[in-house]
Design goal:
- This protein has 4 helices and no strands.
- The protein is an all-alpha fold.
- The longest helix is centred in the middle third of the chain and has 21 residues.
- The radius of gyration is 17 Å and the shape is extended.
């Protein structure tokens, strides 16, 4: 059941990325080009995703103690900002850009 749930979530996410145009390299490049011909369409996609996600998260997910599959929800520890984390984030951003 856990594998099926993960596959469904991944397919749904991929479908959303494809329908919104986030897989089009020209559109992503236009979004990242702040000094040139900036394309704000992906900002609207992200804002729309947050507008749908946040009420459901705060009303349905955050108060839960058990997951939908009956397992305890793991608490995420506070992040530690160290050199490795900042370097990895910078490397990821450079690669994505």
């Amino acid at each position: 059941m856990k594998l099926l749930t993960s596959v469904f979530a991944g397919l749904l996410f991929g479908l959303g990325m494809a329908l919104s145009g986030m897989m089009d390299p020209a559109r992503v490049t236009g979004f990242l080009d702040l000094a040139g011909a900036w394309d704000p369409s992906l900002a609207f996609v992200m804002g729309g995703a947050l507008a749908v996600f946040m009420p459901g998260y705060f009303l349905l997910v955050k108060p839960r103690r058990l997951s939908l599959l009956g397992e305890p929800m793991a608490r995420v520890p506070a992040p530690v900002l160290d050199r490795r984390l900042i370097g990895g984030a910078a490397l990821f951003g450079i690669g994505w850009g």
